[in-house]
Amino acid sequence: MISSLDISTxxxxxxxxxxxxxxxxxxxxxxLVDETGAANPYRARQVVFxxxxxxxxxxxxxxxxxxxxxxxxxxxxxxxQPDHPLAITEGKWEGYVAYPNIDLTTQMVDALETTRAYExxxxxxxxxxxxxxxxxxxLA
Amino acid sequence: MFNPLQSTTIGALEKTLAFTERRHKVLAxxxxxxxxxxxxxxxxxxxxxxxxxxxxxxxxQGRSSAVTANETLASNRSNPPSPLAMFRQFVSEHPxxxxxxxxxxxxxxxxxxxxxxxxxxTMLDDHDQxxxxxxxxxxxxxxxxxxxxxxxxxxxxxxxxxxxxxxxHLHNVAIATMRNQFDLMRAAITERA
Lengths: 140, 193
Known about the structure:
The complex is a heterodimer. Chain A is of the alpha+beta class. Chain A has helices at 4-27, 104-136; strands at residues 45-52, 63-71, 77-80, 96-99. By secondary structure, chain B is an all-alpha fold. Chains A and B meet through helix 1, strand 1 and helix 2 of A and helix 1 and helix 6 of B.
């Protein structure tokens, strides 16, 4: 038996993960090399949610969980900087530097949406707490 | 009748509480899945619950009035039965009552709607067009009711928040009424107002 507080908590955890990914995307908006030091611009991460069927108890009440974290496969943004040490030396993009393809506006809107969803679930938790408090007053 | 709780509406209020508690969980799940692609909002059908509750209360009233008529006949005799005998008779008439406190407090007819009857609450996804809708779960919604977003989810935060608020109100009303009835009963027992 899963309580309504557990359901809201699952949403808080999921939305927090999403906000972390968005923070990482914004923090790495100018990261040109990957963790091995190779010239490979940062790929934006996107968190995908999924209904948590494990927590379903036949009543239809279900929590949420992170299904997967996708890496953005889109083409990096190229900026012409021939003097840059990481400039591409051959091929079509000669003299260009590959920058991460992260749209700051999209990330900020996603962050706002995540924050609102987080707040909404906090609100539901407050209501759940109020209802169980009211239930206890039957005893008094 | 020996059961003092029979004359109150505490049984019906208890069922209402169990229902609103269940519904709150389902609605909390909707809001938890507000960013989940492909998720369709779920709900328990309030109208179906109210109808079922009203029907069981009516059928119970019909039955208890018959019992009262029998009792009136019995009390016309010079020797009214002792409370213990009445209790034994009650238990023999209602075999479930000895084991099931639910039957003592409320109406056995409503027990299909109680918190233990999880089968009654099997949830239907609106997604699932093949399932039958002959149970007490919310039926098909009109296509205009919820906007479906690009991720095929139809959870609207405003609608969900309103539903949760209404559900909480019903829950708190039931509790307030129940407290009131317990207070009245306590007053009658202690013979103090």
